[in-house]
Amino acid sequence: xxxxxxxxxxxxxxxxxxEPFGVPVGVDEGAACFARVxxxxxxxxxVVLLExxxxxxxxxxxxxxxxxxxxxxxxxxxxVDLWHVLRGGVDxxxxxQIPGDRVGTVQIADGAADPGEDLLADLYRRLLPGDGALPxxxxxxxxxxxxxxxxVGVEVFGPALSSxxxxxxxxxxxxALELALQGLGRSG
Length: 188
Known about the structure:
CATH class: Alpha Beta
CATH superfamily: Divalent-metal-dependent TIM barrel enzymes
CATH architecture: Alpha-Beta Barrel
Shape: globular
């Protein structure tokens, strides 16, 4: 209930769900739980987003998409975090088969080409788009073709920005996002 209360207080349009502990979530079980959250959120006008993380119980975009599809709720969508998608193994064909209106938000971060042995440690080495070696552009182009770039933001935390003021983080993030999306236009 607290999450819904906070969402209403903040006038949020969506809430984001993740499984952060690495407990495997089966598609049937995940869909049933996700559907219950969607049903609770719908009268409040909230979209419920499901985010895959490679070190979680929902490790891939394919897994998250299966849960969203099985839940079959009109207010269900995905968070497509490009760092997680690339670190979890991307299937470009799958991404192109997800309807654009089922991508609720896109999070962009860059990173080293090689994540090293510790994926959780690499999570805190995210970089602003354009400052790393991840192949973000092909994914952004695909999302643009899907008309799925309606809610896009930078998600970077860790040493790359921790010494900067909030204002400077905002300026650098905005500029990096503008450069990442340059030439694509915005969907929607």
